[in-house]
Structures are given as structure tokens and as C-alpha cells.
Amino acid sequence: MNVPTHPWPRKTREIHNHHFDSTIWNDLRFRPDDIIIGTYAKSGTTWMQQIVGQLIFGGAEDVDVPELSPWLDLRVPPKQVKLATVEAQTHRRFLKTHLPVDALVFSPEAKYIYIGRDGRDVLWSLYNHHARANADWYAALNDTPGRVGAPIAPPPASIRQYYHDWLDRDGHPFWPFWENVGSWWNLRALPNVLLVHFADLKADMPGEIARIADFLGIPVAPDRWPAILEHCSFAYMKRNAARSAPLGGIFWDGGAETFIHKGTNGRWRDVLTPEESAKYARVAEERLGAEAARWLAHGARTQRGPQGLPAPAEPAPLAG
């Protein structure tokens, strides 16, 4: 691996709320071949976990992604339980995070994959996730020891109101959106970071999976590609949702099939007015800059650099 001349990112803060306990990263013992999958949430996280799991296990039928690839910084179960489970794993580890980079301990040896998705599509999936959550979900997040700050409450009946609350209050009632995307975008020049876009996966899943396999250094036998592609299809994941959703989907009304929802983009176009949609685009450019906002809205298939993105002329500034 080529070592960059600029510093590696450093952890500068902890994040605690109804979901997060970022301190778990302080105690993780990294392995040189670890894979970290980062997203904001509802950006294709489970899809990427499925892809990476299929690559690691060569297209096996029975890969239990939630069991093998835990959300590390989710504060339940407690970090002592989760760290012991992760430490006991003998396969190549692939861990999930929803944190911005400056709340992580960053390993120069691990491989990082970040998935982006238009924030309006994120919001529509997030609303389904939140609106279908059951009493057990609220109890796990609000009533267990270690919660910091206000509890999370049920969403409003109107998805339009939910959209404006989320946009006006930067990620409410979950966590900030723009700093998450921007922190990972700023690492796109690092040799151990790969940015992938949800729309690119939808448009060319075989090509994107091949790019991911190459980045991770995972050779795939030609006769295993059909199984990998089948098992990474949305139709397969929906049929086998209990092996994709956390705890088999017990936290959502309708079970795992609710967690693995539509996987479609653009549903907001039938609800938002042109002015409401333009509001998002304006905020995206203000918070991220034109290039990052364009990537977040459309993906990168039309203008690929070495890692699938327009390569910056100079290394982007890094946290810390």
C-alpha cells in the first residue's frame, strides 16, 4: 500500500446519543485485513454488508450478515459484549459504522468502504424504518443503560414534515447528515478508502462488485460469480430478509421484510414540490461543495477516476 504524505485522520471527539457509543472504537484491536463499512444510514449499508460477506465467503448461501458484521458503534448490546464477539471471529472481519470519520479510530491498514446516497432517498427509507419500528425498538434505544440525551420519539404522520425537520435540523431525530458525508468524501484520495454510490450499484451491480473485490484484494473464482450476483440481488435479499435484518427483523412491524424495504430511488419526486426538492439541493451544495453534492445526487459512473470518482488534484484536507 502506498503511504500518503499527509497525515492519517485522527479521532477528535466522542458521540453519544440514543443510538451511538463511539468509545467502542478506542478499545477495538484492529487486524491488518479488517474491512469497515461506513454509511450515514439507509444508504445501502445492508446491501454493502451482503456484498462484502458474499465476497469473503465465496458466494455461500447461508451467510448471516447481521451476526457476522455488527454495527460496532450502536450502544446495544454493551460494548464489552460486542467487543468480545468481534474478537472471537476468525473470518476476515467486516464491521459497520454510521459515524463520521472524526469519531472513529482510523487504521491505516484496514480497508474502508463508504456508501453514499441522495439524502432525499435516504430520508424516504429512514422514514419507513422509523415509522414501522415497534415497542421493542424504542425500549432498546430509550430504556437501556447508557443513553445520552433525549429519547427518540415516534415520527410525525406526514413524511413531508419529517423531510423538513430532518433537513432544517440536520438529521433530526437521528444524527447530522452533512458532516457524515463530508468527512468521508474528504478521504477519497486515501489508498485504503473506497467510495461507492447506491445509484451506481443499482445501475451496474456486477461492475461495482468487481471494483469492490479488487479494492479488497479478494480474488473470485469465475464459477462463483453467478452465486455472488444472485445472493446480492435485491430480490434474493428480500426473499431471505431474516438473514439480512438485525435480529431477524424483530424490531419492526412486518419483520425483516420491512427492514429490507423497496431499495428504490426517487420516491420523493411524487411528494415534494419542485421548491421543496430544490431546497435540499441548495443545502447540499452549501454544506458539501458542488463536486461532492453532485456525486451524492448522481453517483460517479459517468466520470470515473482510479477509484470510481473524479480524483482531486491535491489531497483533500483530513480530520485532525
TrEMBL record:
Domain Sulfotransferase: 32-289
Signal peptide (UniProt feature, chain positions): none
GO MF annotation list: sulfotransferase activity
Record's keyword terms, sorted: Transferase
InterPro entries linked: P-loop_NTPase, Sulfotransferase_dom
Cross-referenced Pfam families: Sulfotransfer_1
Membrane-crossing residue ranges in chain numbering: none
Keyword field contains Transferase: yes
Region annotated Disordered, chain positions: 301-320
Family: Belongs to the sulfotransferase 1 family.
Matching PANTHER family: SULFOTRANSFERASE SULT
Protein name: Sulfotransferase domain-containing protein
